[in-house]
Design brief:
This protein has about 120 residues and is of the alpha+beta class. It has 3 helices and 3 strands. The chain is elongated and about 95 Å long. It is a multi-pass membrane protein.
C-alpha cells in the first residue's frame, strides 16, 4: 500500500492585521530610539582633585564617622535584628569622631535578647 502525498505551497503571502500593525509601529518608533543616542549628555571629567593633597589624618585613629543621623544595621550575636536611624554626635569638642547616641527606640528591638 503506497500512499500519495500532496503538498500545497501558497505563494500568496499576505501579512495578518496584527503583523501589519507591528511593522508600522516598528517603523514609526525606530527614529525615537535613535534620537536618544544623539542627545546624550556631555560629561567633562575634572582632574583637579587628583593634583590636590588629601588629608587622611582623620583615618589614623580608626574609622571616623561624621556627626549626624546615620542608618545602621543592628546585630546581636551575628543575627540581624533590624535597621535603625541613630544620631551620632561628637563626644567632646576636641574630638573629630562622632559616637552613637543610643535611645530607648534604638535599644528596644534587642532589649528582650539581653535579658
Amino acid at each position: 500500500m503506497s500512499g500519495r502525498w500532496r503538498v500545497v505551497v501558497s505563494l500568496d503571502w499576505r501579512p495578518s492585521f496584527l503583523n501589519q500593525i507591528c511593522i508600522v509601529g516598528a517603523i514609526l518608533l525606530a527614529p525615537l530610539a535613535l534620537a536618544d543616542a544623539d542627545e546624550a549628555e556631555v560629561i567633562e571629567f575634572n582632574d583637579s582633585f587628583l593634583r590636590s593633597s588629601i588629608d587622611v589624618s582623620q583615618f589614623s585613629s580608626g574609622n571616623p564617622v561624621a556627626p549626624g543621623i546615620h542608618r545602621i544595621d543592628l546585630y546581636l550575636n551575628d543575627q540581624w535584628k533590624g535597621r535603625q536611624d541613630v544620631n551620632f554626635s561628637l563626644a567632646s569638642p576636641q574630638s573629630s569622631i562622632a559616637q552613637p547616641c543610643y535611645d530607648l527606640k534604638t535599644v528596644k528591638p534587642v532589649r528582650h535578647c539581653l535579658g
